[in-house]
Design goal:
about 20% strand; alpha/beta; about 120 residues; globular; single chain; 6-stranded mixed beta sheet
């Protein structure tokens, strides 16, 4: 699966996703880095058919309208350390990938996954 990791999340998340066999890029690896506009992220997500991984709830509205990102993973873990965040991804990765294969919008919290559609 392909992932595009937004600026509010650590670069280590993209590295982790690559280490476990997925394609992943962090905004820091894009030409405009963490200043890449949201519309550009949505375009990249669509073009590459990459799941946009973000904490930014603004992306939800366009996904609801059938516009915006190809697929959206909203990370709703609150402010946790990078180590805790990676442990959450490790715990839910298989279920997360399965949910994203079937749904367009998925939320990840510290305790569970929520699939929307």
């Amino acid at each position: 699966m392909k992932f595009l990791v937004d600026a509010q999340l650590p670069r280590r998340l993209a590295l982790f996703l690559r280490q476990v066999g997925h394609e992943a890029i962090h905004t820091l690896e894009l030409p405009d880095g963490n200043r890449t506009p949201d519309t550009a992220l949505e375009t990249i997500s669509q073009r590459e058919q990459a799941v946009l991984v973000t904490k930014d709830t603004d992306f939800i509205y366009k996904v609801v309208l059938g516009q915006g990102a190809y697929k959206l993973l909203l990370v709703r873990t609150g402010n946790v350390s990078n180590d805790v965040l990676l442990s959450i991804f490790t715990r839910y990765l298989d279920d997360l990938v399965s949910a994203l294969e079937q749904h367009t919008f998925v939320e990840l919290t510290s305790d569970y996954l929520i699939t929307h559609w």
